Amino acid sequence: MMYPWSGKVLRFANVEFPPWYIPYYSSDATLRLGGLYGNMLGNITQSLNMTYEVFPPSDGQYGMAFPDGTMNGMLRMVMKDVDEADIATGPFTLSDIINQHLHTPPPPAYTYLVMLSGMRTAYVSKTQSFTNSFDRYVWIGLLVSFVTMTLLMAFYERIILQRFIRTEQFLGFVFELFQTLLQEASKTKFKGPCTRVLGAAWLAASFIFGQSFSGQARAILIVQTPTERINTIEDLVARPELTIFYAKNTPLEPRMKNIVGYRGDLLRSHIEANSIGMPVPIIYNDDVRARLVDKKGVIFMDRQSVMSTVYRWCVETNDYFYVSEENLVDLPGLWYTSKLLGKELNNAMDLKILWLFAMGIKFLPDLVLYRGHTECVPGNTMSASDMMKPTHVHDLESVFHTFVVCTLVSIVSFMLELLIFYSSRCCGCRKK
Question: What residue intervals traverse the membrane (predicted)?
């Protein structure tokens, strides 16, 4: 199909930015753009009977807009008064300043800003506290059940049987229930039909609870506990020695520095104190990667490029990398075109973008986009240890802890029981 612009050669201002743009040379030694957006732009130009040529930014910068309305990098090349390129390939984010000077197409894809950190060791194996055998709600439920059972026994004696309850009798209910809970049921002598029924129910529940406690406590003796994760801005600012690496002179820089609220203030203070801006093509180099795994830095970048890089790093290294789960800033990725191309051509390319987006066409297969694996990307939750080793004293730490605590509680309870017994005996002697 013939168009008014058929045969036109578009000038692309581009900076290498995998996986968005991956430059390569075709069979005729012509520089071409691959990647998520590179393949899409190639498809759009070809479908509109056009070709393109690629130029690097004349000033060596990626491209960003400043408050005074000036721009640098790829964006500057597309401005009317410069006219060194027709399309600033980006990807960029939405900007009112840029929109005043350049044509803004619809975003072909969306991503968001994340933090990438590294570590030598993802998990450490250690014993877990016995109190974590059950959730806090289970412990609260146990306490409530203990109090409720005691009150029911006292209620039966006072209301149903119309008997006066002395303090030592009420405490007797408490000690009997506690003895049962500690598996000392053979010493328990509940009196009366109601208290025996309640005591039997409590005895059965105590056996079940005790067996569950023993099993759960043994199951979590040795767990895989995550090492430190940089998952939020608060985690980052708590480590002032961590250097922030970010893409300098790109739209990500102002978006990162302009996060609103108290957390944004914390981040800006950290950026001013310890950060390094780097060109996009070298932000994932080996030196930065080494700083990450040595716990000396984090990378602020869009999630798409971060995940593509991490997949590759998992093959190249035995270290671990963590991608923050928090969505710091939404990043609609788009390119900008010159208004000198004319409204008709710009609208035609915009319609192509919308059509390709609606069809969900992938211009870079997942096997190419995520070339590698994610075995080096750990989670942030505890898990059972897969270590096979003999049981040592250290492994039984939680069992000893449980034994010591229960013994101390039993001793204290016994002392209280003796104290109450002698107190009541002394009171009885005085009455006589």
Answer: 137-156, 353-372, 399-422
pLDDT tens string 35-89: 999 999 999 999 999 999 999 998 999 999 998 889 999 999 999 999 999 999 9
Q: Do domains 9-110+332-367 and 116-125+226-330 have the same CATH topology?
A: yes
Tokens representing 153? 């026994």
Q: How far lies 234's CA from each of 137, 239, 248, 265, in Å? A: 28, 9, 23, 11
- For 185-226, how does the pLDDT look when each residue is reduced to its tens digit (9 = 90+)? 445 566 666 666 666 676 666 656 665 555 555 555 566 778
- Residue recorded with tokens 């030592």: 168
Return the closest-CA partner of residue 75 out of 67, 66, 330.
66
CATH code for residues 9-110+332-367? 3.40.190.10
Q: Which of 25, 414, 92, 82 is nearest to 253 (CA)?
A: 92
The correct answer on CATH 3.40.190.10 for the domain covering 116-125+226-330 is yes
The token duo for 360 is 């969900």
Please report, for residues 143, 301, 326, the alpha-carbon distance to residue 138 in angstroms, rounded to integers and kept in the order given.
Answer: 9, 42, 31
Long-range contacts of the stretch 378-382 (C-beta < 8 A, 24+): 378/122, 378/123, 378/226, 378/320, 378/322, 379/226, 380/226, 380/229, 380/231, 380/322, 381/226, 382/128, 382/223, 382/224, 382/225, 382/226
What type of residue sits at position 256? M
Neighbours of 184 (CB within 10 A): 14
Would you say the pTM of this structure is higher than 0.90? Answer: no
Phi, psi of 225, rounded to the nearest 5 degrees:
-100, 130
- Neighbouring residues of 75: CB distance < 8 A, sequence distance ≥ 6: 63, 64, 65, 88, 92, 98, 102, 336
Q: Angle CA(155)–CA(161)–CA(167) in degrees, nearest 5? A: 55
Distance of CA 264 to the CA centre of its chain: 18
Task: Determine how many CB atoms are found less than 10 A away from the CB of residue 432.
Answer: 4
Domain edges within the chain: 9-110+332-367, 116-125+226-330, 130-223, 397-431
The answer to whether 107 touches 95, Cβ cutoff 8 Å, is no
Q: Can you give the length of the chain in residues?
A: 432
Distance of alpha carbon 421 from alpha carbon 380, whole angstroms: 52
For residue 113, the one-letter residue type is L
